């Protein structure tokens, strides 16, 4: 039983016969000749065509197809690189335990859940079998413990993108251990990982994950200046950083980011109420400094910040925020764009982007 309905061999015969016609029609318009009816040749489909066909159907059908015959099973097991099981509302853990040893060439695995199902046994199996894994989504896996992170660290060192948002049971010790092995990480989502995201963990990430480009630390209240400063110094290629709800950080964090991360494009500071004008002036001056130091090659108006969320940062004054707007034309306050977000800051209503001064109409779409 896979998914909501059981797929019979007869159903697959009919389904794949139609899909083969579609696949062939895309290339030559003639489809695939199937003499002798659907049962005579579909088991002998070339691997390349089979994978093309499977690219047209959902993951439930791919799993069902892997049980059709030995040839298909081997082709799919060795050819399948991406799989999502987010549709599985029950028994996801058992399904992973069954599939991971078969689909060993997976590079992308999405296990996002609405209700927590995954347990450490499933993640350990993934780590033991899928050593090519580069992208893994385990968001909302509330049942997972540090054992999962230790397993991933040892078994999946090539991870580039990891989403463990909402995994509230992980500790900072386990996250630091993961960072020491998974040094190729570029995208890391820790939103809501209240225990794992600490200064200790961020120091480890800054030391080991120097290719990091995107980090979400939303509502991680244990994050402070020590961690963010270490991150800024160790990850100069950082493009996107969400610090929304990190109530302990101060201007020191933003100054470090402005100084050490010349490619920063998006910064979230929602509810960081210790942020003052010093942060804004540091950001405003960073573009000129980075150009002078040769940190950013070339240069156009899209360089630097494109999104800045300073909602509920009530200590900021209009002049300081206007200075940031003036330095980064890609920041907009006009209708339809709003990449400079100032909700809850009534004192900043007088701040306007370049469009207002140039008399340009608001952007639509």
From TrEMBL:
CDD domains: F-box_AtSKP2-like. Pfam families: DUF7885 (PF25372), F-box-like (PF12937). InterPro entries: F-box-like_dom_sf (IPR036047), F-box_dom (IPR001810), FBXL15_LRR (IPR057207), Leu-rich_rpt_Cys-con_subtyp (IPR006553), LRR_dom_sf (IPR032675). It comes from the Eukaryota. GO terms for cellular component: SCF ubiquitin ligase complex. Residues 42-76 form the F-box domain. GO terms for biological process: SCF-dependent proteasomal ubiquitin-dependent protein catabolic process. Residues 118-284 form the F-box/LRR-repeat protein 15-like leucin rich repeat domain. This is F-box domain-containing protein.
